[in-house]
Structure formats: C-alpha cells, structure tokens
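Field guide to reading this record: the first block holds the primary sequence, the second block holds the structure written as discrete tokens, and the final block holds curator observations. Each block starts with its own label. This record concerns Enoyl-CoA hydratase, catalogued under organism Acuticoccus sediminis.

BLOCK 1 — SEQUENCE
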Amino acid sequence: MARRFASVETVGRITVVTLNRPEVMNALHRAAHEELGEIFDAFAADPDQWVAILTGAGPRAFCTGYDLKALAAGETEGWGPGGFGGLARRFDCDKPIIAAVNGLALGGGFELALACDLVVAARGARFGLPECRAGLIPASGGLQRLTTQVGLKRAMAMIMTGDAITAEEAERFGLVNEVVEDGAVLEAAMDWARRVCRSSPLAVRAAKDTVAALMDPVEQSLSRQDERTAVRRLRASEDVREGPRAFAEKRPPVWKGY
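BLOCK 2 — STRUCTURE
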C-alpha cells in the first residue's frame, strides 16, 4: 500500500514506522492519522511482527503534535479508533512498541511517546505538552499518562506552563529508558527491539497485557474526558479557535477566557 505521510520497513520481526512530514516537523493532520491507524492495525494483526519502533523523519522532530495550521485552515480535528497517530488510544495492542525520539516530541508527539512501552531519546530531544499555550488541552492521554508516570506535581507543572524538558530530565523522571547521542537513536531503539525479541513473544505479550490492567483508570478517564464540564466549556469557547489561529499567524494569542 502506498504511503504518503509515514514509511514502514520490516527488519526481521521488527516493524519500523517513520513519521514522514519533516517539512512541518512531523506534525500530523487528519489524513496522516488515518494512515497511521492502518499501519498499526496491520502491525497488530501480523503474527510475524513482534515489536514496533516509532520514529520521525529528519533530525529536528519526532512529532510536534497536531498540525495547527491545518486546524486554522478549517480542518476538523479527528482520528480513528486507535487515537492520535493511530496509537494513543490503542489500549488493546499487546505487542511492545518503542519510541525512538530524535528531536522535538511536543503535544501529541509527546503523547505518542507516553503511549509507547519503551522510549529511547537523542540527547537533543525535548519533551513537552504546550497545548494550554494554544488554548487546547493534551486530549490524547497526555494528562492521564504523564500524571501516572511522573506524579502529580511534576505533571501539573509541565501541563500548566507548557514548558519542555530535556532528554536527561525525561530520563531522570522515568519517562525515557536510554539517552544516546544525536543520530544514534534509531540504532539504539533497534538494539532494544532485538533484545525484546530474544524473549518469548507470547510471554512478552502476556506480561504487557497484565501490566495494562494497571492502566485501566487511564483508559476510563480518557474515555470520559469530553464529558467534563470544563472541557466542554473549552471546546465551545472562542479561545479554542484563537490558539491555532494565532499560531498560524505567528502572533501571541489574545485570550478572552470564554
């Protein structure tokens, strides 16, 4: 199948998925989400593929989230059942997925890394959830997963300020398994994948499936997120349109608070 926004390579039992929109720092629009959903559907269904690696094309970015310029141009935000990037709401995949973060992992891009089982980061990588600065919220599991993985105070500081952290800080917070030199991240991720493949694939999946039960509150919270009064108020506000518009026009947003 022809791919426009991501490339797929299989290396033995390992599937390497590369986000391929470097001209917009691998930000994803609706068509890219749909394509990635199909890619991860195929990976999950293929008995010969045991581990997936997700990375981004080019040295600048892993993924910088939803394409805000597409939103500002009138595109309706959306993705398939797998969630952002075909992955953020894929709670039923028991195969391990590794993020090879080669640059900026911001917004939905950070949420993709948070949804992976292992994360390898280049030394120059940065991680952050800047959505509140754009009048949005991290709606693809970032609120839930970050809080679960680093604790309330660290998570709220990152979420409310939108400030990014370095790869070394992410490793110290327990978000990253290994930090490597820039340019070496994919090979390091491949090494992790090969090591995982030395284990029984059925045992690995049974372990992941069992541990996934710990994430049930995350899934439940995410499924009810849009029912929250404050979230509904945000979705209906002028601010939720002002943020992407200001980003596209390269100016500071003018918030109204309603």
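BLOCK 3 — OBSERVATIONS
The two ends are 45 Å apart (CA to CA).
The chain has a mean pLDDT of 93.
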